[in-house]
Amino acid sequence: xxxxxxxxxxxxxxxxxxxxxxxxxxxxxxxxxxxxxxxxxxxxxxxxxxxxxxxxxxxxxxxxxxxxxxxxxxxxxxxxxxxxxxxxxxxxxxxxxxxxxxxxxxxxxxxxxxxxxxxxxxxxxxxxxxxxxxxxxxxxxxxxxxxxxxxxxxxxxxxxxxxxxxxxxxxxxxxxxxxxxxxxxxxxxxxxxxxxxxxxxxxxxxxxxxxxxxxxxxxxxxxxxxxxxxxxxxxxxxxxxxxxxxxxxxxxxxxxxxxxxxxxxxxxxxxxxxxxxxxxxxxxxxxxxxxxxxxxxxxxxxxxxxxxxxxxxxxxxxxxxxxxxxxxxxxxxxxxxxxxxxxxxxxxxxxxxxxxxxxxxxxxxxxxxxxxxxxxxxxxxxxxxxxxxxxxxxxxxxxx
Length: 400
Ligand code: TRP
Ligand code: SF4
Fold this sequence. Notes:
- This protein has helices spanning 18-34, 43-50, 57-70, 88-98, 102-107, 109-117, 126-129, 131-140, 154-171, 177-186, 190-206, 209-220, 227-237, 280-288, 309-317, 320-331, 337-364, 366-394; strands spanning 5-10, 36-41, 78-82, 146-149, 249-252.
- It is mainly α.
- It has three domains: 5-172 and 246-257 and 366-394, 3-Layer(aba) Sandwich (Rossmann fold), CATH 3.40.50.620; 177-237, no CATH class; 278-363, Tyrosyl-Transfer RNA Synthetase (Orthogonal Bundle), CATH 1.10.240.
- β1 (5-10), α1 and β2 (36-41) form a beta-alpha-beta unit.
- It starts with a strand and ends in a 6-residue tail after the last helix.
């Protein structure tokens, strides 16, 4: 509703690997330069599936934050915080639960999928059913309009949009809404009032999405509107009532093109990762022993890079010249697999070196990270409280 705001969270899985780096973290680093960004550790979400192992959470939280920082997530550009240190997330989760149809939660596809997949875990809890609603609270409490997540999270975003629409529908009504909205239009000044009304008609009569867009940016440029009028005018564009909560958009994160060492997706559970903290000797060893095209039994057997996970690494790391060299050398059996792997090792080591260094600095002085997070939590608490005030009021809890 206001300026663009990006929010994303990660469950505390401990130290991260190159798959996270090339998928999520590089994207965060790019986003923090373009938008106001909030990135947080979803530690409560970890408890929805691991409520019986609380002892692993804390170390995982700090290790993960250190890896974010090492990868270039910058606390001077983005706000970094921990979910459980912003208790308003829980308050909003509770309030939203009042109006959340049970069937909506039961129908979120990840609910049944995960229960079927993770049979070794007890997932028939209230907390696990509520996982997507807690995620909605995370997003809606900051009125974030852009949420970078992977494809697996798309159903949770769709669910969040539905919750936000339902909330606005239930609580965005006020006595005399239309009159108040018309009053607010007048406050825009004659030229802008006219433009607003024209754009609103274009959208409502012809469904012209670009008119809606234009009207929204017109409102975003208004400095002197009160919060109430702003919500009315945004809501009035689309009909209904006030827009108290913002419907978030998914910013789909492209899945990392880099596979794990065995060619499958890089994942801790497949034991095929290179972690951001991997020491150089271990990186060399892991790449040297990586499987290659099985057809190349001997050095003189020609191979096909398309059947080789090492080639996927070249696609991520190598320039065109090197890629041509791999293609020709492999297909004509002019190079050995160890020759082929050497530039990959070099590139990973070059990429890793500054991260490795920064991780060491943060590990040596834990107060650095503690301070960054304390700062971020303070900012996040302030932002969350602003929205909570409107929400409490809308739900009849505005008294003191
Ligand atoms: N469920 C997300 C995941 O597993 C983590 C998450 C929690 C999140 N709350 C969020 C992501 C809010 C984006 C926005 O990846
Ligand atoms: Fe794979 Fe390179 Fe060996 Fe070809 S030469 S099989 S691409 S490691």
